[in-house]
Amino acid sequence: MTTIWTFSTSPLLLAFLAVIWIGAGWLSWANWRRRGGKGVAANELLRFVVVTLILFTLCKPERVRRIYKSDPPEIVVLTDVSGSMTSQDVEYEGRIIRREDWLKGRMETNFWKSLENSGAKVRLEPFAMGPTNENVLPDGSDLNKAMDSARVRSKNLKVMLMISDGDWNVGDSPLVAASQLRSARVPVYTVSVGADRSLPDLLLEPVAVPAFGLLGEQISIPFKVRSHLPRDVRAMVSLTSAGGVDVKKQVVIPPYGTVQDSVVWSPRALGEYTLTINIPVQPEERLTDNNQQSFHISVRTEKLKVLVVESLPRWEYRYLRNALVRDPGVEVNTLLYHPELGPGQGPHYLQKFPGTKEQLSEYDVVFIGDVGLGGDEMTTADADLLKGLIEQQGSGLVFLPGSRGRQLSFKGHPLADLMPVTLDEQKVEGVSQVSESNLLLTNEGKGHFLTMLAADENLNEAIWKNLPGFYWSAAVMRARPGAQVLAVHSNLRNTAGRIPLLATRPYGNGEVLFMGTDSAWRWRRGVEDRYHYRFWGQVARWMAHKRKMAQGQGVRLAFSPENPQLNDNIFLQATIMDLSSAAGQEAMRAKIISPSGATETIEFNSVTGGWGVFKGSFVVREGGTYKVQVFSASGKHKLDTEIIVSQPKVEKTGQPANAGVLRDIAVMTGGKHGGIDRFEEILRAIIALPEKEPIEERFRLWANAWWAGAMLFLLAIYWAFRKVLGLI
After folding, report:
1. Which of 24, 612, 679, 704 is deepest in the core (most CB within 10 A)?
2. Distance from C-alpha of 538 to C-alpha of 628, rounded to nearest angstrom
3. What is the pLDDT confidence band of residue 136, given thresholds at 50, 70 and 90?
């Protein structure tokens, strides 16, 4: 380390300052000779010193300290190992390989040895993730932190080489670290790996699929297709299992667009299935190994308990009851309020409505036919129980009105608020027509689980158009807010539009369905029970789905959302199946074990109403499988289940390389940028760099505030001393 003083002045200015300095000295000497005395001599000497300091400052004096590094120069090589480097878009030696494979090939050549031969110390630093905290996804790329950390750790950093695709999605902008490197006079040389535009390709992106399904249930399998082709692509998406192709669906993908849709799969047997969604490879595609996605799904069976409540044994009631009785996955009980003969008799018949919460809570789905309040049918207490069952325990409710118009008697009772539609009170007996009408599927109904009578959506729509129609329908005015209309009357409409006849609506924890015609039994014409049984079987399973998510010893568990993602708040609802007073007062807890092994215990809050419902929630901070153990204080109620949390992929594969940010880093720091074709050229440029100049630290005395303050202080002493001497 050496220290020198430098001045910034011209010869003319220096001569001018010398003249002023000599003149100031002569003036001080003359004043002392004229007035005499030691006090005058000291005062004039102080003035001369102040003038000398001012003239010295005008020469802009600077103290320069040069620091010479004794450590060898360092070269840091940053290599990107993030998820985006798995993209396959590098054209190399006539093949298309992954970005990480090209980088791996360069690493195997030990290219950094040539940099070490230049006398520098080379340090290899792979990077991917950003800083560790609960809000950062583990698959992110933080270019800023990678560069800044390397700068801080280095003692004598000469140059930095970054090999990356430029994808940064975590942390501050890389230009923040680049500006600090520029201040430290450290150039950054960058090599972008990957194509600057997407290769012609179709790819199926990963999506969250259901972890389980019930046998006989329509299971929706979502898919997402992204196109990097300059034309419309009409392709057939197929879902295959070990037995072959199960479902096909045609989609049209716009140029450079995305299509997100789903196929409906009906499992034929219990077991564990590995399913594959596939889209055909197009002739111009450069990549052919990303046109399919495989996943695992478990198909199990659960015995559903269904209650059918009716008055007159009309045809729809008879065929519906037969369909449910013959369904091996359904246990059905029937309550027939015959207005003339009294309650129906026989197997599976009840003599009265389940009058307690314990009795009614056993049912997963309740069908309410042409039944109402009073008249030896349902009582207000029965309706209160039914509303609580749907609202709190998550059971399903199906309204099947009839020509007696008895469901209008629910008006004034909260049970009427559950209905997805508003009925016309002026037309109690409904609407009868001479000509046959049909159910016309809406856009929402064309792909809904309840209306899928065929695996293919286009074939399903054709089936509905050809189903036998009906002559009677309920008098509906409009759908209620929040209802999803699946089918409308093919002929009738009013000021609100077409008359909704098939609609669903969530209420509390359950689902409610309205079927505005009692002629679904006519769908049997020519095909027997194919469509009629399938429709009502799907209804029962879809409406009972929430109650069958997980069940253990004396308790069942439902959670929402069913397919949670990272940082979601998962709401848990534990329902005790034994509704005795002692059981309902027990404390319920849940032990949550995260994928990393961290444990959290949550306390459930009891929901008022006496339905044995407890609610709690927790926030997921990791992706993967969470183990959930629900238990009561007494240990009589236990349940073990798993919740799979999907983690959004921050690192996108198949995206073009972000060469722009790498170029900006190189330009800002005085380095160079290039693609993989300029890799050797960039290495030679780094080797040719001269030795790093010593660090200079400059102290500008002429611009220092303390220096200016000191001169003002001396001037103040001078003027005060003059006053004391009586020179003013």
Report:
1. 612
2. 29
3. very low
Of the listed ranges 305-309, 445-449, 689-693, the one predicted with least confidence: 689-693
CA distances from 695 to 2, 179, 669, 670 (A): 11, 18, 17, 17
Q: Which helix (H) or strand (E) holds 719?
A: helix 705-725
Q: In angstroms, how far apart are the furthest CA atoms of the chain?
A: 143
- Per-residue pLDDT tens for 453-484? 886 677 888 899 999 999 999 999 999 999 99
**Contact present, 566 and 648 (Cβ < 8 Å):** yes
- Helix, strand, coil shares of the chain, percent, nearest 5, are 30, 35, 35
Q: Is 539 helix (H, G, I), strand (E, B) or coil?
A: helix
340 with 280: CB under 8 angstroms? no
Peptide bond into 280 cis (omega under 30): no
Q: Please name each of the domains of the chain with its CATH number.
A: 2-68+696-725 (no CATH), 74-195+655-692 (3.40.50.410), 202-300 (2.60.40.10), 304-548 (3.40.50.880), 550-645 (2.60.40.1930)
What is the β-pairing status of strands 569-576 and 212-214?
A: unpaired
Cβ partners under 8 Å of residue 426, min gap 6: 475
Cα–Cα distance, 691 to 668 (Å, whole number): 20
What the block records as the tokens of 573 is 């609802």
Does 698 or 370 have the greater pLDDT score?
A: 370
User: How much of the chain, in percent, has pLDDT values that exceed 70?
Assistant: 95
Q: What is the pLDDT of residues 63-108, one digit of tens each?
A: 888 766 666 789 999 999 988 888 888 888 888 889 999 999 999 9
Position 171, amino acid: G
Q: Using one digit for the tens of pLDDT, what is the confidence trace for 597-609?
A: 999 999 999 888 8
At 34, which helix (H) or strand (E)? helix 11-35
> Model pTM?
0.69
Are 419 and 515 in contact by the 8 Å Cβ rule? The answer is no
Q: Which residue has the higher pLDDT, 155 or 516?
A: 516
The Cα–Cα gap between 29 and 86 comes to 85
Peptide bond into 401 cis (omega under 30): no
Reported in sequence order, the residue ranges of 454-577 that DSSP labels E, i.e. its strands, are: 470-473, 476-479, 484-494, 497-507, 510-515, 550-551, 555-560, 569-576
Q: Give the separation between CA 611 and CA 389, rounded to whole angstroms.
A: 8
